[in-house]
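task queued by scheduler; priority normal; single chain, no ligands, no partner chains; default sampling; output format set to structure tokens
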Amino acid sequence: MNPLLRFFLLLWLGAAGPLTADDFDSQRERFLQEITDLAEETALETGRPTFAAPVMAALGRVPRHRFVPEDQVPYAYKNRPLPIGHGQTISQPYIVALMTDLIDPRPDQRVLEIGTGSGYQAAVLAELVGRVFSIEIIEPLALEAADRLRALGYSNIETRAGDGYYGWESAGPFDAILVTAAASHVPPALIRQLKPGGRLVIPVGAHFMAQYLLLVEKKAEGGVTSRQILPVSFVPLTGGEPG
């Protein structure tokens, strides 16, 4: 952010007074309603006119304002992505809800997330599944997210800095995998680490070009099917083999 703009933003926030817990609660209620409305609007594309009640409840519990930089806190409950540094973003809450809902989360699941970012998606998953494993290729983000998640009491999340293209073989296989950056193709290692009957949600496409959110399902016999859900825009998945 431009230093002058940041100065005036902080000056305005100081004049208005710090945001309170009640402020965040009311903002969170509004953004949950926005997500509900958008789910209805996109039902034809996604096949999901509503998201499961536990998923929406998880979004209501996770304090998104704790996962964004200080100058983005006033916008934490806007239904849009926000910058978190290092050229990365925290995903739009509607997309977080959709991707989470698409894996049909259950308390007995082990889920792999590729692209920890600030840790927000991992926290939402941790509210719903038994164990979350999250990889972030940008080491400073990985370290900050680990500290943040620990401070917030998420004991069922394990994070590490590394190249998510190759997954996390020693922790697999996984009931579900979420990828929060756009790849040119579905990484083969992620398919191998997905349990039969498991689901993989990943944006596929080139940066600044068409990207689609894919739902990949691994059948009991090992076969794989995929379907496009809807157009999306994500930062690119880095690392791994050239596309």
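post-processing summary
- The longest helix spans residues 21-41.
- Residues 15-231 form a domain with the Rossmann fold fold (CATH 3.40.50.150).
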